[in-house]
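Exam revision sheet. Question 4 asks you to relate a sequence to its structure. Input first:
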Amino acid sequence: MKQYPRALGKLIHELSRLPGIGEKTAQRLAFHVLALPEGEAESLADAIVEAKRSLKYCSVCGNLTDQDPCAICSDPTRDRAVICVVENPRDVLAMERIREYHGLYHVLNGVISPMDGIGPEDINLRSLVVRLQGSDVKELIMATNPNLEGEATAMYIARLLKPVGIRISRIANGIPIGGDLEYADSETLLKAMEGRREL
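Answer key, structure tokens:
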């Protein structure tokens, strides 16, 4: 086991706890931070502390925000008849990058995963049901990830809200732009065939 000075070992340990960061990457990041001028290192630390202290979840949609309700929920130009349901705030950023969706969002901040002990009551689902009561929402777009948990969550929500009479759609899955059919797995090809549209 490598012997680091205590402060360096602690920094490497904390960085390695970040998703996708192993010990070697944590070590590289730690040495990079230590090589920064003191002012830049303090700015980085301040940004982390400020983000942790000032960001909260929007009381309407569940997205991360520094104001309540968030900027998207407060925007009068957004289409209030459509809500895109996503798993986490990163998905909102991804959807906003396409610049074609102009409706509202609902962030679940998780997915149903019985294997991990996460049920419907553990995600931001109850507030969606309350939000739809007496609203003018005409469509819910289920944009959860196309994995087992994301699919299960989308199906659960669709079954739960079907009696409300709102149109519930699912984003299409299939072959990525620039992908080759020969490298696609059978499940991806099946989804691509099911999601085909007329040209």
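Marking note for examiners. The two ends are 60 Å apart (CA to CA).
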